[in-house]
Amino acid sequence: MAPLIAALGAIRGWLRRMTTASPSRFAVLVFLTLIAAFTVLLSLPIAAADHHRTDFADALFTAVSTICVTGLSTVDMGSHWSPFGHVVIYLGVNVGALGVLTLASILGLVISKRLGLRARLIAASDSNPMRAHAGPVNESQTVHLGEVGALLATVALSTLIIEAALAVLMYPALLAGGVAPLTALWEAPYYAAMAFTNTGFTPNTEGLAPFTHDYYFLGLLMLGVFLGSIGFPVIRNLMIFKWRVRRWSLHTKLTLITTTTLFLAGGLVFLLLEAANAKTLGSEGAFDTFFQSFFLSAMTRSGGFSTVDIGQLHGSSLVVGSMLMFVGGGSASTAGGIKVTTLAVLALAVASEARGRSSVHAFGRRIPSDVQRVALSVVAWGSTIVAVSTVTIAQLTQLPVEDVLFDVISAFGTVGLSTGVTAELDDPAKYVMAATMVMGRVGTVTLAAAVAATSRKRLFELPVERPIVG
């Protein structure tokens, strides 16, 4: 008994040292541990419908896609998994939706029995990438340390309440769609979880085909995706200040404005590009085409559900979809991508530079230069990850590079839409795609901070010299 207690004490001490030395690296460790655990669960014969062990590559890929709340799959999600497998996936997407850093903070809370400073630092970093770096953080952070406990409560309560409400509203729609009452009792919370977590898995082989013209059901999916993609800090800010817009934080304003703008612009562009495409939206009526265009716009932001064959979209539409997927949703949300606030900060910086302003302002607030540098770093890292993954997978599979690029961006942005490439991947390419999902979900800033665990302070400044740019 004494050796066991000593071993547990040693493990606890190691975890404490890990959280102190590098919270972001500790968070990544928690994330990878979850992926390993769910890979084991999905590899069990009981998890497959035919009660045979799922291939390791497919089990790993599904586990990564589940924990990363992506929605890409290399097997038929409706027919391959048993009820036990579907329950594992359902639990996995809800765990993954908490976010790697928020999840790590909860584990830190369990270890230390209280939400100490280290756990607060980890949780705060999920809502503000600046927290993943050493050094001072200014007052413009999205979530202050003192608010982290309330934020964690918001995460848990909002997830439970929103998914439960969506499930209740979806149940009659499933019955109207011909789903058996008992089956609908399972599918309603499943669809609700997949919508709010922005995953996009469906529990049946037909997918959304039975609900293609059910605007009520599709509208609920869009609502769930929207609520999940705006982020927990925004949800909490709206709960506190409601319609008192002037009291909203700058982060909330930028998130809602950018999200709405991209949704409307994407819907209009898809309507323009696909209205004449008989293989996608062109065969529908006027209202159907209009609605499906905006549904597609909402799903390319990270939702992952689809009522059309993505592989039949025009190349121009695939480019637009790739751009929307790369941006993704809000910070500290269930969505992926570089985040809408990153895009907003960069757009404001470009506009300020064009006007000759020395600083970036928005809604009566100044955005400091360190936030702008982080935004630029996120885009640079994200672009690099996408480029390297695309080249690697295209070389391994010799598939059309434009289709590979779309699926890679879908993996990086944890979206889940596919042109059909993902289902054709061989095992080495599956591993590359899985790594892309992990890097996209963990976050480029957190990943960089985890790799560069040590930071050095410069005690002197070098002479200034300005290179020619542009």
Automatic annotation (TrEMBL):
From the Swiss-Prot or TrEMBL record, state where the protein is found: Cell membrane
Name any Gene Ontology BP term.
metal ion transport
- Look up and give the membrane topology term: Multi-pass membrane protein
Q: Which GO terms describe its cellular component?
A: plasma membrane
Q: Which UniProt keywords apply?
A: Cell membrane, Ion transport, Membrane, Transmembrane, Transmembrane helix, Transport
Q: Which InterPro entries match?
A: Cat_transpt (IPR003445)
For this protein, the parts annotated as crossing the membrane are 26-44, 87-111, 215-234, 254-273, 323-352, 373-396, 431-453
Q: What is its main location?
A: membrane
**Molecular function (GO) terms listed?**
monoatomic cation transmembrane transporter activity
Q: Where does the source fall among the domains of life?
A: Bacteria
Q: Which PANTHER family match?
A: KTR SYSTEM POTASSIUM UPTAKE PROTEIN B, TRK SYSTEM POTASSIUM UPTAKE PROTEIN TRKG-RELATED
What name is this protein filed under? Potassium transporter Trk
The major lineage groups are: Bacteria, Bacillati, Actinomycetota, Actinomycetes, Micrococcales
